UniProtKB/TrEMBL annotation:
Classification via PROSITE patterns: NUDIX (PS51462)
Domain called Nudix hydrolase: residue spans: 10-145
Regions that span the bilayer: none
PANTHER family per record: ADP-RIBOSE PYROPHOSPHATASE, SLR1690 PROTEIN
One GO molecular-function entry: hydrolase activity
Keyword Hydrolase: yes
Protein name as annotated: NUDIX hydrolase
Matches recorded under CDD domains: NUDIX_NadM_like
Length: 231
DNA sequence: TATCACCATGTTTCTCTAGT
DNA sequence: ACTAGAGAAACATGGTGATA
């Protein structure tokens, strides 16, 4: 047996998740307050060790952590990056596989009671949350936000943050919120029709003190539709 | 040619007012 | 008090002309 067979020479392997949802304040990210050292009492992205006895693969590990923290088995999960170094965790050499998860407003509302006690939604401010977070998670969050903002330009991503049923006005409003700019209504509707990822719900109209709006749902809640050009 | 800003029109609901 | 009609409000949809 060589010294390298010893556990002390194996890297720490974890999955970390940047879990996003939409709140009235805009895009929000789920953070957990760490109970133990290192960084005890500080906020961090939710994450956990990979359990080789339980997790069939990396995505399964990510889904398990997500369910533990939110109670939600998200329909949309995407691997962002793998990061690893000797210095990112004071406990030793560590590898983290980072995932982005998108939760619909419905999921967040329905599973509010199932959310971990140490977890809280924090509104995104610029490239972070406006205060320092543990480990290298500020950099990971910045990376995740970059990926999301880039994808908003050419995919159905905002639709995955809305409730299961939504109107075109609500969808446009989410795009505008994430892009930080106003969109032309005509051009927006044309692009949505071309992208063909929405399905009108037959006979379902949103009634208010105005003309009723057609209610839509995503054709496929498990994957993003990509546009052939920017919105 | 695509995009954008603007405009016109259609639809529905709400509020106000006059008539019964 | 109740009802009907007019007008306003809000939003969906589609068209047009200017511009890059």
């Amino acid at each position: 047996m060589t010294t390298h067979d010893n556990d002390a020479f194996k890297p720490i392997a974890t999955v970390d998740l940047a879990i996003f949802s939409l709140s009235p304040a805009g895009l929000s990210v789920l953070l957990v307050r760490r109970a133990n050292a290192p960084f005890a009492g500080e906020w961090a992205l939710p994450g956990g060790w990979i359990h080789i006895d339980k997790d069939l693969d990396l995505e399964a590990a990510a889904r398990r952590v997500l369910k533990e923290k939110t109670g939600v088995e998200t329909p949309y999960l995407e691997q962002l990056q793998t990061t690893g170094s000797a210095g990112r965790d004071p406990r030793g050499w560590s590898i983290s596989i980072v995932y982005i998860a998108l939760l619909s407003a419905d999921d967040v509302e329905k599973r509010r009671d199932a959310m971990a006690e140490d977890a809280e939604w924090r509104p995104v401010e610029g490239d972070g949350v406006g205060f320092p977070i543990a480990f290298d998670h500020a950099a990971l969050l910045k990376e995740a936000l970059g990926r999301i903002r880039n994808k908003v330009e050419y995919s159905s991503l905002p639709g995955h943050l809305l409730p299961a049923r939504f109107t075109l006005s609500e969808l446009q409003s989410v795009y505008e919120n994430l892009l930080g700019r106003k969109l032309d209504k005509s051009a927006f509707r044309k692009r949505m029709a071309e992208a063909d990822f929405l399905e009108p719900i037959e006979g379902e109209l949103r009634r208010a003190s105005n003309r009723p709006a057609q209610v839509f749902r995503l054709k496929d809640i498990k994957s993003l539709a990509l546009f052939d050009r920017r919105i």
